[in-house]
User: Which sequence fits this backbone?
């Protein structure tokens, strides 16, 4: 084992990552190599609920995850906690400024949890945490510049710079801490309205919501297993149903993935034009479809990118850390902050 270097000796302590999402709170004890040793889940309290209720649920999830790791003799004292929040985090990483699905508004979340738990706490945005996980332990390892896109209900994304053989890598944060929010780049002037207040945003065309909208528009008009699964009621269709139908080679489901994959590639061409990254990693629930999503994305990237015939294109890879990426990344951020491995 290498010398852990200066800083507190917490090699025996547990590092916890907690992902505070719009529907659930996932906490996990994470080993130095990114392995998740134990987890606990709590439903996220209703969005119009109190901050106290939300933070109590976070407390419970963290406590239960540490308890579960203790039961198998893997935790010990807690050395630090990384909090990944589904919202905008300020550049100083002290506050959640705004979160569409959480009650935090300008809240000094980091300090409050650190005071309550009595350990160092690192706060970041969930897409940043997931990207950091893929860079440290997943599909973007070794990259100089990596773009990590999380395709779920919407599109989250983050950019890692300064990696490669010599570099430790860092997340691009920008003036407000809001760099890399690619989901709201406009791809269609005056296009579909978006929850953000804009129109024609990328996530209206290339997200899980877009996938479901595509399939719903065709149910009842074309022969498809989706018709049976939703009982002829388009509103009952879900993203996982479309993914399962595509696995069964259902034509409408395959067309839905081809359509949003194509839009995904159009947006990836824009970010490639700006950053010329070494690698693009695509995660999130919709990426479970694998090449059914990524092949049309690669084709559209090569079609839409300036000078595509005269340059190397970045590989578009599927993320490897799955739904635990944000907790793995948040824990890795804590280890970096504590200067321990
Ligand atoms: Zn938008």
Assistant:
């Amino acid at each position: 084992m290498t010398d852990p270097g200066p800083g507190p000796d917490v090699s025996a302590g547990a590092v916890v990552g907690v992902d505070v999402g719009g529907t659930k709170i996932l906490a996990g004890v994470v080993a130095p190599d990114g392995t998740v040793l134990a987890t606990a889940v709590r439903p996220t309290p209703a969005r119009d609920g109190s901050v106290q209720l939300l933070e109590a649920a976070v407390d419970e999830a963290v406590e239960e995850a540490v308890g579960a790791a203790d039961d198998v003799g893997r935790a010990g004292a807690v050395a630090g906690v990384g909090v990944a929040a589904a919202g905008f985090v300020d550049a100083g990483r002290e506050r959640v400024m705004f979160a569409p699905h959480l009650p935090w508004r300008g809240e000094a979340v980091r300090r409050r949890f650190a005071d309550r738990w009595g350990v160092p706490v690192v706060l970041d945005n969930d897409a940043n945490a997931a990207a950091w996980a893929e860079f440290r332990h997943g599909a973007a390892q070794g990259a100089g510049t990596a773009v990590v896109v999380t395709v779920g209900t919407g599109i989250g994304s983050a950019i890692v710079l300064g990696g490669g053989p010599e570099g430790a890598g860092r997340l691009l944060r920008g003036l407000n801490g809001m760099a890399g929010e690619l989901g709201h780049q406009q791809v269609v002037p005056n296009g579909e309205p978006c929850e953000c207040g804009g129109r024609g945003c990328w996530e209206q065309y290339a997200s899980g919501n877009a996938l479901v909208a595509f399939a719903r528009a065709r149910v009842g008009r074309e022969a498809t297993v989706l018709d049976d699964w939703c009982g002829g009621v388009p509103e009952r269709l879900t993203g996982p149903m479309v993914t399962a139908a595509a696995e069964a080679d259902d034509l409408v489901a395959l067309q839905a993935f081809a359509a949003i994959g194509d839009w995904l590639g159009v947006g990836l061409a824009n970010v490639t034009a700006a950053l010329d990254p070494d690698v693009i990693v695509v995660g999130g629930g919709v990426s479970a479809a694998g090449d059914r999503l990524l092949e049309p994305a690669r084709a559209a990237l090569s079609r839409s990118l300036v000078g595509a015939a005269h340059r190397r294109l970045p590989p578009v890879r599927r993320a490897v850390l799955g739904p635990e990426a944000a907790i793995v990344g948040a824990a890795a951020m804590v280890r970096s902050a504590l200067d321990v491995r």
